[in-house]
Amino acid sequence: MTTATPTREEQRVQAAPAPAGQLRRVTRWWPAAALAALLAAPYSSLPLPGLLDGPIGSAGSLQLLALCLVFGALATGYDLLLGRTGLLSFGHALYFAAGSYATDVIMIEAGLPFGAAAVLGLLFGIALAALLGSVSLRVSGIAFSMVTLAFAQAGSILVERDPGGVTGGEEGRAVPADKLPASLVGIEHTVNLYWIALAYLVVTVAVVHWAVRSPTGRVWEGIKENERRVEVLGLRPYGFKLTAFVLAGALAAVGGIVHLLLTGGATPQTTTSDFTLSLLVMVVLGGSGSRWGPLIGGVLYTWADHRLGDLAGSDSVAGLPSVLRVPLSQPLFLLGTLFVVVVYVLPGGVARLPQRLRAAARTRS
Asked: 165, 174, 295, 340: most buried, per Cβ within 10 A?
């Protein structure tokens, strides 16, 4: 009996560490590193030219970072429907706006403190998601998408019509400073709002991760792959889809409350179907159905939305020839171009980039 002796080249390859394995070990710990950086952000005076207007710890930078965190969390919750259960909803903005407007109206009209108003606003958002979800989920596919779009449009029209003067119409409704805790009012307290936004992100990611790993989450995956097969197994997809719908609506309502604090009021722009389409772009940009993709997409989209808007109105663009100035002065054109480039270069979203790098490393090795 003989044994094959490895060649010198095979021994060298076996002894050398695999590039793909090294890359996997590096990318495994990036969420913890990102969280540590976010925790340290308010204490940093490091400038990031081109990325932020001032030092990381300045009020303006923290405000932008807080908005990025809120929309990253909101996209993560929305992916419970799109990426995990296969439900394409065009009305998710309605529950974000419900939490914002309900909290605002309760504080002003009922005179309740912010804490009690926020709890009631959250309960209103959950009840609205349960009610409209129970109706919308009676149909499936494109019909479901159209029903959710109809509900969202109805909500947007209701807000703009300003019934009883409670929504503020097209101008929205600001929250009087005396209705909020003193620690959440003023530029000097922007860091407190940042901590709230970061807490919302952490809670949302934890809830979504727990839900996806639960037995219910496995049923969601089965519904996305083949709903008829789930029915054959003796399960009722309707109840599981409604659970995902209500949970995503509840997380959106919390996001609306946090957004109310960050912006100082409720705005009608958050009720439109365009807002939900923005969420859809965030999820696709980051990577639908992945653990971190929607979060990354939400952060990148929100940052680009603000920074490209500044670029579009800058003197550099104003001095260009009209053939370049006209398209570059439109932030939506810049966002759309960026989105097309990312989707074309990185199919599957930004979250798939580490997998592509590992595949390239294995190919080289």
From this structure: 295
91-107 residues labelled b (16+ CB within 10 A) or e (exposed) = bbbbbbbbbbbbbbbbb
Nearest by Cα to 121 from 267, 275, 258, 264? 258
Q: Over the stretch 176-187, which tens digit does the pLDDT of each residue have? A: 888 888 888 888
From residue 266, alpha-carbon distances to 59, 166, 342 in Å are: 21, 11, 32
Detail the DSSP E strand segments found in the chain.
Answer: 173-174, 265-266
- Looking at residue 15, what is its pLDDT? 44
| Chain position carrying tokens 């049923």 | 219
DSSP H or E run through 63:
helix 59-79
Q: Which one, of 24, 70, 42, 79, lies nearest residue 221 by Cα?
A: 79
- pLDDT at 24 exceeding the cut of 70: no
Beta strand 173-174 with 265-266: parallel, antiparallel or unpaired? antiparallel
Question: What is the distance in angstroms between the CA of the first residue and the CA of the last residue of the chain?
Answer: 32
* Backbone phi, psi, residue 203, to 5°: -65, -45
Alpha helical stretches, state H, 106-183: 114-136, 142-161
Closest Cα to residue 64, out of 248, 297, 301, 339? Answer: 301
The model carries a pTM of 0.86
Q: Exposed, middle or buried: residue 342 (CB in 10 Å: 0-12, 13-18, 19+)?
A: middle
What does the alpha-carbon distance between residue 255 and residue 157 come to, in Å, rounded to a whole number? 21
SS (H, E, C) 278-316: HHHHHHHHHCCCCCCHHHHHHHHHHHHHHHHHHHHCCHH
Closest CA to 97 of 294, 260, 277: 260
Mapped onto helix, strand or coil, the DSSP state of residue 55 is strand
* Confidence check: pLDDT of 6 > 60: no
Per-residue pLDDT at 10 exceeds 60: no
